[in-house]
Write a structure and sequence with these properties.
The chain has 2 helices and 5 strands; from the N terminus they run H-E-E-E-H-E-E. By secondary structure, the chain is α/β, with parallel strands linked by helices. A hairpin with a 7-residue loop joins strand 2 and strand 3.
Length: 85
């Protein structure tokens, strides 16, 4: 029990201090209606980007995964609505 509390604390601290974030947008350009403006369409990564920017983190958004990921603290991957594999 004590070990799990320590683990959760370390995980929370690492997530709060992460500043180099990559959003791997691998959804083949799929878009959905913007929940805030239904007449506009946004990529599936839009909500992730909004949440990160709101919390003061500017993510890098790429459609292809780089060979060297050591510069990023956290990587999010969007797989799309209909993932083909």
């Amino acid at each position: 029990m004590k070990l799990s509390i320590i683990f959760l604390f370390v995980l929370a601290v690492s997530l709060l201090t992460a500043q180099n974030v990559l959003i791997w947008d691998r959804d083949d350009g799929n878009q959905i209606a913007d929940p805030e403006e239904p007449w506009n369409y946004v990529g599936l990564e839009a909500a992730l980007k909004t949440a990160l920017v709101t919390n003061g983190i500017l993510p890098v958004i790429e459609s292809s995964l780089a060979d060297d990921l050591s510069e990023y603290d956290i990587i999010f991957a969007t797989a799309g609505i209909w993932c083909s594999g």
